[in-house]
Every structure is written in C-alpha cells, then in structure tokens.
Amino acid sequence: MSTGETRRVLIARALVTAPKALVLDEPTAGLDMIARRRFLEHVRAIARAGTTVVLVTHHVEDIIPEVDHVVFLKNGRVILTG
Fold this sequence. Notes:
The protein is α+β, with helices and mostly antiparallel strands and 82 residues long. It is 35% helix and 23% strand. The longest helix has 16 residues, at 33-48.
C-alpha cells in the first residue's frame, strides 16, 4: 500500500470504535501533493461528522478550516494561541 492508503486504513481502524477524538501527529508527512489534499479532505469530513480532531503539524497549510483552536509552540513553550 502507498503511504496515503496506509494512513487512510489506520484512520478507518481508529474510527471503528466511534471515538470522540482523533489525534493525528504529522499525518501528511511523506505524502505527495495529491495524496496530501485527499487525506486532508477525509480528515475534514471526519471533523464535520462531529469527531474532535487534534492535529500536530509543522505545516500551517495542513490546518483544516474545521480546526477552531490553534496553539503555536517554540522550544516547547506556547508562543501564540487562538
């Protein structure tokens, strides 16, 4: 399986138990532009369906519109939140 397919399978497995929250740590690492876009579309649908998404990323462009609170860290300290 490709990296994108593997990520989708892992998320599907996590969603089987209908969790209240889904924690994703650098979920788009290793994905090409097309796979990244598709993956984030799936995450957006999950968030719209009511599952809380906690997204950890170094890439601001990975922050989906459904995320309503962002915390920026630098050297392990909160530098901005909102």
